[in-house]
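The following record pairs a protein chain with its ligand, zinc ion.
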Amino acid sequence: MKYFNLRLFKEISFLIWLLLIIFISIVSYIVYSNNQTRQSNIIKSSFENIYLKKIIKEITTNLEPRYTTINYYSKAGDTYESIISSLLLDKEEKKLILDTILSVNSLKILRINQRFIFKYDHLSEKKVREFIIETDKKNEIIFSKKINKENFNIKKLEKNFQKNLVYKETVITNSLYNSAVSLGIKPNIIIEFARLYGFQVDFQRDIWKNDSFQIIYEEFVNENNKVVDTGDIIFASLNLQDTDLQLYKFEYDKNKIDYFDENGKSIKKTLMKTPINGARLSSSYGKRKHPILGYTKMHTGTDFAAPTGTPIMASGDGKVTKAGWCGGGGNCVKIKHNSSYQTVYAHMSKFGRGIKKGVRVKQGQIIGYVGSTGMSTGPHLHYEVIENGKKINSQKLKLPSGKILKGQDRKMFEVSKIKIDVLKSNLISKMN
Ligand SMILES: [Zn+2]
């Protein structure tokens, strides 16, 4: 009995093992073959996609759209004439557009940062069928023309935007730009913030981790509560290692806006020390062996090494007295700021948009880009400051500060400052 049982057990266990092996083989075969077809399907579909994409790319890149749109923001020194003449249109059409604009009374004065939108129809003989000029953030004038009609219809339109005041604050963790972006601050506000502080702060060297800033600025939202544009910075405070730099927007005269510190002093200096961002001072003012001529010569400017194409700013408000070739200086720009100060910027790769002799420029405006034209061993900006006809060391220059508000202006400023401070507390309390 015992013997029999053992035999039976052996046979059954053999059978179980056999069944188990067959079962495992079937399962693994199914899994394997399923996988095979899936793999080949993936390869097939991705191949089809690449093929399709290639075709889509080919049929789209060779085609020109019928309608194109050109956006332009007016800059210092622009006129309606200069803007229209830069368009790719025939003479007659340019004249029609210019005459149409000049016939509108509310467009008599062209301000900086006015937006122009030109819509081109490449099928029609006269290309511009519609163009729009924004007179300010909330108003625009639409010029449109029916097919085969000669003249434009002029329509004024008030945009249904709501102006909101936004308060943001943060501790700077990696860079000012990244911290601002992560708060949702729009790039043009960040650029304006950097431009305003550019006279006091060297963004490469003065800002440290855990410094902080606060800002109030205007934002325009449409009916769907979507931000469509930004306006002015109203207030900002940059809290650096051992200084707090505050600035308040103030209208000190009709339509004349500037930024002042808490003591009513304009944050602008008459000249910037370093009219370029992120550059390294590579050669200072004084006697040195000339890198190309080889002999010792007075270096009458300051050199800042920076990559080709880095924007160069006007170091102060003024009038361009030269924008052209200066021999050893290559492409250069000269600016007369007032009766005593002039500045020179040499070796540029190209000039800023609209920069030519006679044009007025604003401090911080881009007048050209770093290059290595003329007598130069590598891309850099050669910057000269001329005081009463004599070249001086820009880095030792005791910079005369800008406007200080006095008398009635100062009183008005104090009132406006208090209003802004109250606004700030209100905005902060709304955050919590
Ligand atoms: Zn130099």
